[in-house]
Amino acid sequence: MGFKVRVVNRLTYNDECVKWADIVIPTGGDGTFLLAASRIRDNVTPIMGFNSDPNRSEGHLCLPKYYSYKVDEAISRLHSNDFEWYLRSRIRATVIGDRSAFTPHDLHKIPDKLEEVRPTLLREKGQILPYLALNEVFIGETISAKVSHLNIWLNDELSHTSVKCSGLCVSTGTGSTSWHSSINRISVQTVGEILRLLDMNPTEDKNSLATILSDLYNKNLIFNPTQKTMCYTIRDLICAGVWPQPKGIKPRGFSTKIKVQSKCYDASLVIDGGISFAFSTCAVILLECHPEDALRTVRFSG
Questions:
Q1: N or C: which end of the chain has fewer CB within 10 A?
Q2: Which residues 6+ apart lie within 8 Å of 194 measured at CB?
């Protein structure tokens, strides 16, 4: 078909490659897709992923498994404009009032393979971190056994809520099938134990009420990837004397803006489980979704 192709791997894939390409086509699983997407920082350059191991991997972000065996058909449909654009919302993280360097660390590479740090982008209100989260942003103590102390503002609230927890996870609709679901899902066993307390049918087989209710609840956790609002989850919220929750905030909810101040000892801000930034005490981050930050993906109908 006369295409020019440049083949790269995770060590040779860089900003120059993205600038050169008309489309980025990762081949692997969701992790490879996220890595490829992390270099695309606008809603212009498209991405289309193939699942390289469809028998063992779901590859939610990739094309349907059918196209793993019919790559030529997918390329033909792309070339014939037989597809539709699907813009997945991503989370922008802006550091407020702190001009110190936020150095990214790639969690998938050994230390001597780290690339040079790219400078953050500046704007009047703060520094925009040079990575957009397609799945989620996590904020919490680097050592997970430590309690994370955070101040949280939702939307345009003037006052914050101080929380003690195991960290904060802020998810997009794309990420709602991933860590967001893992944190919040309830098991058939849990629902069965609740039913026993209500003197109801305690069975946990595949046709039981416990199974039906847990499936219904868990499916309800997933939301549209194009949605501009984010879903936050405060992990293991410590309630102490204010059970069931601290005044002014729920353990999980939706918000268009989320501002977080670290009161931690040694916290990290992690984007899509792959890029980590040290999030020092008193540092403040603002999380938002902007249309110009969306990821342009390919979707085939039919």
A1: C
A2: none
